[in-house]
């Protein structure tokens, strides 16, 4: 190993992983993590019938390995790598799973599928999975703080291109890899990591989340067997940061790995209230508030102007969406659906809902701009020009579901009920919540049993 003053990024992360003391995780943070597990599971149950989920499962059913794990929404027994790929893809198929503003992406769906697959295969306790998740979240958010803004703006999908390292760190912790093995696992992850925002609005977007999990499991499995990688794979002259982040110095953030408050408390986890890109949510909150105050319909509106904070609209790449998946990344559709229907639900993203003639004809009336830097704090300004000359304006800063304005446990379970019903299975959202919220006291197998006890055997 290099001297402490010249440790590589991989060595610093590995030192954090092997020396992490879970005693620093407060009960409140454990509950935040348990909520994140639940949110990810119910989003997967809701997304089971999406084309990306169906095709990914068919792909995985052709692969087997000695270690086996469960596809959450169907009960299929797969190799751990394939289970993680399927569960990650399914969990992100509806874009309804939790987010992190500093990551500009979805942390839990890139970590928990790998951890639960690995935990199930080795007979782990739920408490160990929570510990490992906090480790992975810490690594993910520290890396994100160091590099994600320009990285994401250039087109990388940070859920895959950054959180894969968190997933790798989490799995290394759960497997109790040595320091050297963890360094190698991180380097092996560098050899695989990718993910592009160009795939937003297609089945490949959730696949990238699934792939983050599969990458991590492949990396730790190879490292456990003795497969090696460059110690400087992350920060060397031809390493990850040189290629993906203009050689930004990530060491200051890595030096603070594990410092209290941990990122699970400092950044928290933001639970989505609406099943589309998070960049639209402040606008939707504001529009629904306006509809509760004013008796207006789409026919009353001449024009809608939305201005957001700097770079908020970067992922919103469709101004004239034609499919439900494209609609999830369209501010124009988010505005139109909210004003037309008065709600934004899972069913809002059926292809037929997006293709309604009244929707397609109104999209061009929605105009979207961004403010100037900085990117934080986040906000959205709404201006609705009515045909009778009136103008309704609203500014939204606080966001329902954010860490500052979180959904209650009861509201989260209600979201779970909607997800379970939408997916067509028979899992009890309440029983699943009880198991997730008590995961500290359960084996992983106990949680999997609740998922599979009543779920369908096949799609």
Characterization of the model:
- With 459 residues, this protein is of the alpha+beta class.
- It folds into 2 domains: 314 residues, 2-methylcitrate dehydratase PrpD, CATH 1.10.4100; 119 residues, 2-methylcitrate dehydratase PrpD (60s Ribosomal Protein L30, Chain: A, 2-Layer Sandwich).
- It has a 4-stranded mixed β-sheet with strand order 4-3-5-6, covered by helices on one side. A two-stranded antiparallel ribbon has the order 1-2.
- Strand 1 and strand 2 form a beta hairpin.
- Helix 5 packs across helix 10 and helix 9 packs antiparallel against helix 10.
- The longest helix is centred in the first third of the chain and has 28 residues.
- It starts with 8 loop residues before the first helix and ends in a 7-residue tail after the last helix.
- The mean pLDDT is 94.
The averaged pLDDT comes out at: 94
- Reading off the top of the CATH hierarchy, the class of the largest domain is best stated as Mainly Alpha
Structural class by SSE content: alpha+beta
Radius of gyration: 22 Å
Percent of residues in helices comes to 40-55%
Oligomer: single chain
Percentage of residues in strands: 5-15%
The CATH architecture term of the largest domain is Orthogonal Bundle
Q: Work out the helix count.
A: 21
N- to C-terminal distance: 49 Å
CATH fold call of the largest domain: 2-methylcitrate dehydratase PrpD
What key attributes describe this structure?
globular; 4-stranded mixed beta sheet; alpha+beta; 60s Ribosomal Protein L30, Chain: A; 50% helix; single chain; 2 domains; 21 helices; two-stranded antiparallel ribbon; 459 residues; 2-methylcitrate dehydratase PrpD
């Amino acid at each position: 190993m290099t001297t402490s003053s010249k440790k590589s990024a991989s060595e610093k992360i590995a030192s954090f992983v092997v020396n992490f003391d879970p005693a620093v995780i407060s009960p409140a943070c454990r509950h935040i993590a348990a909520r994140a597990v639940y949110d990810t599971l119910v989003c997967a149950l809701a997304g089971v019938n999406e084309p990306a989920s169906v095709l990914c499962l068919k792909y995985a059913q052709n692969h087997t390995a000695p270690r086996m794990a469960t596809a959450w929404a169907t009960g299929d027994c797969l190799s751990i790598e394939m289970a993680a790929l399927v569960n990650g893809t399914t969990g992100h198929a509806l874009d309804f799973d939790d987010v992190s503003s500093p990551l500009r992406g979805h942390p839990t769906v890139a970590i928990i599928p790998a951890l639960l697959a690995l935990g199930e295969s080795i007979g782990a306790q739920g408490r160990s999975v929570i510990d490992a998740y906090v480790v992975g979240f810490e690594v993910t958010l520290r890396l994100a703080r160091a590099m994600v803004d320009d990285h994401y703006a250039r087109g990388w999908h940070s859920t895959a291109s950054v959180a894969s390292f968190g997933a790798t760190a989490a799995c290394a912790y759960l497997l109790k890899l040595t320091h050297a093995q963890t360094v190698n696992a991180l380097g092996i992850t560098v050899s695989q990591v990718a993910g592009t925002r160009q795939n937003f609005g297609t089945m490949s977007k959730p696949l990238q989340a699934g792939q983050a999990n599969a990458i991590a499991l492949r990396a730790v499995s190879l490292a456990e067997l003795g497969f090696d990688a460059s110690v400087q794979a992350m920060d060397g002259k031809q390493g990850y940061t040189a290629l993906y982040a203009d050689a930004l110095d990530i060491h200051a953030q890595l030096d603070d790995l594990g410092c209290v408050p941990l990122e699970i408390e400092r950044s928290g986890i933001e639970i989505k209230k609406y099943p589309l890109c998070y960049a639209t949510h402040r606008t939707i909150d504001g529009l629904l508030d306006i509809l509760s105050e004013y008796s207006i319909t789409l026919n009353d509106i001449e024009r809608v102007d939305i201005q957001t904070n700097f770079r908020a609209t970067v992922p919103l790449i469709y101004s004239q969406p034609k499919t439900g998946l494209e609609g999830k990344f369209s501010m124009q559709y988010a505005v139109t659906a909210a004003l037309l229907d008065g709600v934004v639900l899972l069913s809002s993203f059926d292809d037929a809902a997006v293709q309604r003639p009244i929707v397609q004809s109104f999209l061009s009336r929605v105009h979207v701009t961004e403010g100037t830097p900085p990117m934080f704090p986040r906000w959205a300004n709404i201006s609705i020009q009515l045909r009778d000359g009136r103008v309704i304006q609203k500014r939204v800063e606080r966001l329902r579901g954010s860490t500052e304005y979180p959904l209650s446990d009861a509201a989260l379970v209600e979201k779970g009920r909607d997800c379970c019903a939408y997916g067509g299975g028979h899992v009890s959202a309440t029983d699943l919540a009880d198991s997730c919220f008590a995961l500290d006291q359960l084996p992983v197998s106990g949680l999997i049993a609740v998922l599979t006890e009543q779920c369908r055997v096949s799609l």
